Amino acid sequence: MSCVLVVGGGGREHALIRRLLRSVDPPELLCSPGNAGIAKDKVECLDIAGEDVDGIVAAARERGVDLVVVGPEAPLVAGLVDALADAGVPAFGPTAAAAQIEGSKRYAKELMDAVGIPTADYAVLTSRAQALERLESAAYPLVLKADGIAAGKGVVICANEADAHAAVEEFFTEQRFGQTEVVMEEFLEGEELSLLALCDGERALPMAPAQDYKRIFDGDEGPNTGGMGSYSPVPGIEREHVEALALAVHQPIVDEMRRRGTPFHGVLYAGLMMTAEGPKVLEYNCRFGDPETQAVLIRLRCDLLKLLRGSTELGGLAGVELEWTPDWAVTVVLASRGYPASSSKGDEISGLRAVESLEVEVLHAGTKEVDGHVVTDGGRVLNVTGLGATPAEARDRAYAVAEKIQFDGKQMRHDIAERAVARVQEVAG
Fold this sequence. Notes:
Helix content is 32%, strand content 28%. The chain is of the alpha+beta class. Among the domains are: 3-95, Rossmann fold, CATH 3.40.50.20; 121-186, ATP-grasp fold, A domain (Dna Ligase, domain 1, 2-Layer Sandwich); 327-429, Phosphoribosylglycinamide synthetase, C-terminal domain (Glycinamide Ribonucleotide Synthetase, Chain A, domain 4, Alpha-Beta Complex).
């Protein structure tokens, strides 16, 4: 039996583990550090943080791991895949050099310029003084982004100059995201689309499209989060559109990175804005999206373990075609009190017993077990994904279960997939 170590402890990693458990030849699974739900799936959770590169490499060698699947971006940017390769352990994910596509917004923008990928106009701000000077002649709204990784929270949409000044203080004076440059972008209008592609260093194999909800409150109000919900597929984005998008925004990146000697292996996530002028890239991520993964993988008919192994080898995905169920999937995120500015921890969670079914999957993100009770561990706590023949059916099933789960300060949006439901009903009738 093979042994696979999944690095991370969120809903994305729980989704990966659930699919790996359904492989044709299920491997022995380890998770570092995991969470309460992953442990309840009888997966051994190692007390090693995802950012502990040396600890993970040592554990992989000691336990005879033959594949490490890296979930979060921070270990990838820190060079975990490189360290594992040096130790002779195969890993799913890009090297540190390739992970810079997420590790640096500036790098990603310059890479897009080099290969001609449509994106928002931008400028790089290196100091508070320079930023304040640029804001005097800026057009609003505009977007300010921390250059480095920020768990989805380093993006501020500024409606006016006052908002922009406040963001500049947050970035440069308070250094909320450490010492960082800031990328200033034009504000793009349209609908967002998330498209992930499995990459083997040569080819970008697109997955099913999804739509993510970044803001904390209904109606896209409030600050950005790591994601409060998602759904898949997306109305109007058919297979031919997906393949065309991958050729336009994923494949050129894969080709250029290979040309530069830093081939991209793993998942290349493109966050797109479907503007009136056509699709434009908002950002790239170097790993599975969260919570898009929860809505996408549940629909995958292929053996995930084979796909992950194929991605680690140059050209290992040649001839592979992905298959998807016709179901709709809607994922609702339950977050802790205070998120995203702060996070309540230690609140007991009720309603978890017997809430899952063939049509509803409950994945753990920020949870831990204390004295036999599952409690919140901050941030996004749980993901509830409903399946259905229509987006309305999937949405109803997800919310029916989400309402049954309770903990003090629970936050969730109530409008996930609302637009998809309306569009499908409009076409049908």
